[in-house]
Amino acid sequence: MATIVVMPQLGNSVESCIIMSWEVAVGDTVAVDQTLCAIETDKATMDVPSTEAGTVLALLAEEGDEVPVKDPLVIIGEAGEDISALLPNAGGDATPAAAPTGTESPAAAAPAAPAPAFATAANDGAVSPRARSLAASAGVDTAAITEGSGPHGRVIERDVQAHIAAGPVLTSAAQVTGGSAAQGTGIGGRVTTADLAAAPASATPAAAVAIPAAEFPGASTSTPLKGVRKVVAERMMASLAETAQLSYTVSANAAGLLAMRKKLKNADESLGLNGITIGDLVGYALVRTLVKYPSFNSHLEGGVFTTFEQVHLGFAADTPRGLLVPVVRSAQAMSLKQFSAASKQLAAEAIDGKINPELLSGGTFTVSNLGSFGVETFTPIINRPQTAILGVAAITPRPVVKADGSIGVEQRIGFSLTADHQVIDGADAARFLRDLVSAIENIDVTVLA
User: Fold this and answer.
1) Are 417 and 433 in contact (CB under 8 A)?
2) What are the catalytic residues?
3) Nearest to 7 by CA among 54, 40, 56
C-alpha cells in the first residue's frame, strides 16, 4: 500500500526546510533509511532518510521549494499502484509515475492523476515558491502567465523566466496603476508609472529586450534571499528595529594572551592543550566575567527580562552557507580544555552543515570574533532575544607611554560590546568591560580561578 513520506521535524525551532537536491527519481526502488533528498533549514544542511521501502511513485515538491515540516514529500509504494487518492488536490508539484512492468508501456504504467482545477496562475497554489520569488523580484504579475509548464499546469521558475524574456516588466507602482507601455525606462528596463502615463492609449505590450539603465552598466544578477541568508537578514533587521542598541569600545593589553598561547602551543602533546587559541582564551575569560553579571547573560522578550545562572555561549561561525551561531552549553562549568574542544567540535559541525539544529539555539550571550581577519573595530548586532553581544577585534601594536615617560609599543586587543539600553545602562556596560579587560590582562590567573 502506498505511503506518504513527510518532511521530518528537525528540532523544535525548525518550521520549514528547502529542498536542495533530490537523490531519487520516480521509479527508483528505495530502502528504509536511504537518502531521499538533501534539505536546508535556516540553520543547517542535512539528508532526509526514507521511512518506507518500495518504489518512488511521486515527488511532491521541486528542488528549491520550501516545504513546511510534516508536509508530504514523497509517495512510496508498489510499482503501478494507483496513488490518485494520495495526490494533492491542488498546488502540489506532484510528479506521479510508476516503474513499468514487462508488458506495459511506460505511458500506461503511470497511473492517471486527477488534474487539479487551476483557473489561472493567480492562484498561489498554482505557482511554485521559486517562481513566486522570481516574479516578485522582477515585478512580474503571475496572473499574466495563464498556463505553466509544471505538473498539472503549475507555473514554475522557467515560466517566469520566459515571461520576463518576452517583454518589459512593471515596477510595483506600475502594477497597481495598471496599463501597458511598449518599453520601460526604469532599472533593468522596467515599466514605471511615468512610462504608463506617456504611453498612447492604444499602446499594447510589445516584446522587447530589456535595456539596462545607464547608471547600471554591465551585467547584473538578481537572486531572492533564501535559507540562512534570508533568516540572517530578517533577524538583523528585527534586532535593530526592536532593541535600543548602544556600543562601547575598549582595548586590553594582549601580552598575557600571547604569552599563554605560546606556552600552550609548546606544551607536551599528551596534555591536549596545543590547539587552544587566542579566541578560546578570550571566550573563556568572557564566560568567567558573565558569571558575575547576570543582567548581560539574559533575554528580553515580550517585556519580560530573564537572567540565567548558566552561561550558554553562542559564537558566530563563518560557514559556506552563511552566518551560524553554535552554542556551547553550560560553558561556566567547563575547564579551558573542555571549552576549547566543545567550541571546535561545534564549529566543525556547523561548517560541514551537519550540526544538530538544537545546538544552534538557546544561547544566553553571543561573541563574534573578527580578529583573524585583521578587523580593528566593529559594531556587532545583538542576537535577539539576548541583551548583549561582544565583538572581538584583532591584536595590533599601539603606542604607549611607559612609566619613565618614554614611548613604546604595546600589543593590544580590541573589544566592542553592544548592549540593549532598555535593560543595561552605560555604567553597567563600563563595569562589565572593566572586569573583562582585567580577566584578559591576567589570563593566567583567570584560567586557574
Assistant:
1) yes
2) 421, 425
3) 40
